[in-house]
Design brief:
By secondary structure, this protein is mostly helical. Helices cover 68% and strands 0% of the residues. It contains 16 helices and no strands. Helix 10 (195-217) crosses helix 11. The protein starts with a helix and ends in a 15-residue tail after the last helix.
């Protein structure tokens, strides 16, 4: 860590004197390589730590605090081009390995890494690709292992988390978009299991999230995410229909008395679709929205209902819509491969030794 601190100070001094171009100088690049090796060493140590020699609690209390100051301070202070994605990878490993033992440290880690990284990766969809991937791996690890920490940060930072997930969903790179959808699904499930934060979360974010998922669902560039779009919409609509959202999703002061969340959401989504897609009739929209609230629909039926509506839209009618069927196509291909493998296995000697499953 002393080596890391010394090199960090020297790199910062070089950048201060010569600006962004300093990160391309051979001496600075050599020092950055040394810093990355320190980060990799710490990462391996955390990964390999475990009982009985290193209990998670002991590692969290004895090892993590000295690491935070030099690494987080350096990451936050540096210019974008001098920030190492290995920092995000290290703290992803910390969260995944030490879980609830570092829940109190997560707000501080997020404060130093979250906003500055988000500013780097949201300028466009191309710059800092490794930071982008590591950032969402880090966010997913927190959501899975230290979920309470997401609501121990300031409200402005909580909104940044939601905005970051929505931005990922809208990303044109498939792996980032898929990660964003999966993070949102896990987040909604975690929120549903935490009654003391659920209603506040729903009141602030649920309506906007429904609209954002609809936006990517009806974007022809995001057909590959159709399975998760369906899963998320079904989950959110059924939350409202089953009256699990007890706070109003609307402004009571501007809404007629006796308004309920299901009625409000039904009208809101109908108006949104009619406005956005003028070629669809009011009857078609009403039938579609009725199906969205149908609690008897399992996920495959719900997906079919969504897909049928999308194909009616002018934007999709002249397109190749095979992406909407990707899950079914992958399953059919897997079943064909399994059937062919079983057929070959039935004939002695036809399989190569490498193809034989020794566990059978």
């Amino acid at each position: 860590l002393n080596v890391y601190k010394v090199y960090s100070e020297r790199i910062s001094a070089a950048v201060l004197q010569q600006g962004q171009i300093a990160t391309q100088m051979s001496l600075v690049r050599t020092m950055r390589s040394a810093k990355k090796e320190v980060l990799r060493l710490l990462n391996v140590f955390i990964q390999r730590s475990g009982p009985p020699e290193a209990e998670p609690r002991a590692v969290a209390q004895g090892f993590i605090p000295p690491v935070l100051d030099p690494i987080l301070g350096d990451y936050q202070r540096n210019i974008a081009g001098a920030r190492d994605p290995e920092v995000l990878l290290l703290f992803t490993t910390v969260v995944e390995k030490l879980k609830s033992h570092v829940v109190d440290d997560v707000p501080r880690i997020m404060e130093s890494t979250f906003e500055c990284t988000l500013q780097m990766i949201t300028v466009n969809f191309e710059d800092f690709p490794e930071h982008r991937i590591r950032f969402y791996e880090f966010l997913r690890a927190i959501n899975q292992h230290c979920f309470p920490a997401l609501f121990n940060i300031p409200a402005a930072h909580q909104k940044l988390v939601i905005d970051a997930v929505v931005w990922a969903m809208k990303h044109t790179e498939r792996n980032i978009a898929d990660t964003g959808l999966e993070i949102l699904h896990e987040l909604l499930l975690n929120v549903g299991r935490t009654p003391d934060i659920a209603q506040g979360f729903y009141q602030q974010y649920l309506l906007a999230l429904i609209q954002d998922v609809f936006a990517v669902l009806t974007d022809r560039l995001h057909k590959s995410g159709f399975r998760m779009h369906s899963t998320l919409l079904r989950h959110m609509f059924h939350l409202v229909q089953m009256n699990q959202v007890t706070v109003p999703l609307f402004d009571p002061s501007t809404t007629p008395g006796g308004q309920s969340n299901p009625v409000f959401l039904r009208n809101h989504i109908s108006n949104l679709l009619i406005t956005s897609f003028p070629n669809v009739t009011k009857t078609q929209v009403e039938s579609f929205v009725d199906g969205m609230f149908n609690l008897k629909m399992d996920l495959p039926t719900f997906k079919t209902h969504l897909r049928d509506f999308l194909i009616q839209l002018k934007e999709f009618s002249a397109e190749d819509n095979s992406g909407l069927y990707s899950e079914e196509q992958e399953m059919a291909a897997r079943q064909r491969d399994e059937a062919a493998q079983a057929q070959r296995s039935a004939v002695p000697g036809i399989l190569k030794p490498s193809e034989i499953d020794n566990d059978l």
